[in-house]
Amino acid sequence: MGKAAAVVWDESFLGYDLGGDHPLNPVRLDLTVRLASALGVLDGVDLISPDPAPDREIERVHEPSYLNAVRAAPMAGWDVGHGLGTPDNPVFTRMHEASSLVVGGSLAAARRIASGEADRAVNIAGGLHHAMRDHAAGFCVYNDCAVAISWLLDNGFDRIAYVDTDVHHGDGVQAAFYDDPRVLTVSLHQSPLTLWPGTGRPAELGGRGAEGTSVNLALPAGSHDRTWLRAFHATVPALLRAFRPQLLVTQCGVDTHREDPLADLSLTVDGHRAIYRRLRDLADEVAGGKWLALGGGGYELLRVVPRSWTHLLATVLDRDLDPNAPLPADWISHAAALAPDRPLPTSMTDEADTDFQPWGGELDTPADLAVRDTRRALFPLHGLDPDDPRD
């Protein structure tokens, strides 16, 4: 990497707090930055403190009436509408301000790339990919991913690929660009037959004039590192090469982990590290090295998210960590105080094997069938042969 990567972080991000025992607890962000700092990943890095996104930027993908509802929600009581005030999306103090700051963070990262100051940028507080044009969904109030992509399309980029590795379908980003041939949205997620939001089937191909720019690979529950990586390699690289994006945007949710309480895939921290390294390679290969990485889901707050996203930060910064690196004693002590009865890992690895056998056309497992379905739905639209494993 020639230019220094940009890292967006400010403690004010912790204000996006849905309260109580809600799964999306901002402690995961605090613990990640503490761990990355303790391991030296952020040494010498000037962290970018963002400003809240102004309304005109958020309104790229959201209705003005929805912004008004978000602003009013903390004073409006329970009858809010727009998906607000639900168990998934409870109302909280300064909800608009906290949500617009997340968007501002992803815009700040996007601006560093568009200006040429950096080829890579990361905002682990971002990745709120479920928010829709006029309503909140899946813990997401404003869709920072879609706002950043829309802004980039107006600031020097004509072809953007978005790859979503969260366990849940990246439905909000897909919806925002379903009819836009300039954006390729790729989502790898647990099958909609077994997990919310129940969308993300291979037949969701893109709207009229944008056929083939919506890609969905729905994996069976229980899929582990090697299965996930095999499926990824059988579909994503060929589609990215065919699409030829100028920039790669990734949503790097880590709720695919085997310990995550809200889903049923079986990846490890080692699998996440392998995913980030492959995304980095693909950004270098197909997008001139330009990579905007965002956070996302992840609800094992102490054991998983901090380690996985520390690996993400390290990968973006070309400061890859040895998986066997021990966790610093001070960090373990701090994390243990938050949950005294919760055993903590001692290193940056789950000691998992991430080697996989490349897909060669076999249909031996449910995951292979998912690969076949996605390839047959999408590959012909990009001039690729779905039955030829060389494509």
TrEMBL record:
Residues 22-315 form the Histone deacetylase domain. Pathway: Ketone degradation; acetoin degradation. Belongs to the histone deacetylase family. Keywords: Acetoin catabolism. This is Acetoin utilization protein AcuC. It comes from the Bacteria. Transmembrane segments: none annotated. Residues 342-367 are annotated as: Disordered. SUPFAM superfamilies: Arginase/deacetylase. The keyword Transmembrane helix does not apply. InterPro entries: AcuC, HDACs, His_deacetylse_dom, His_deacetylse_dom_sf, Ureohydrolase_dom_sf. PANTHER family: HISTONE DEACETYLASE HDAC1, HISTONE DEACETYLASE HDAC1-RELATED. The keyword Transmembrane helix does not apply.
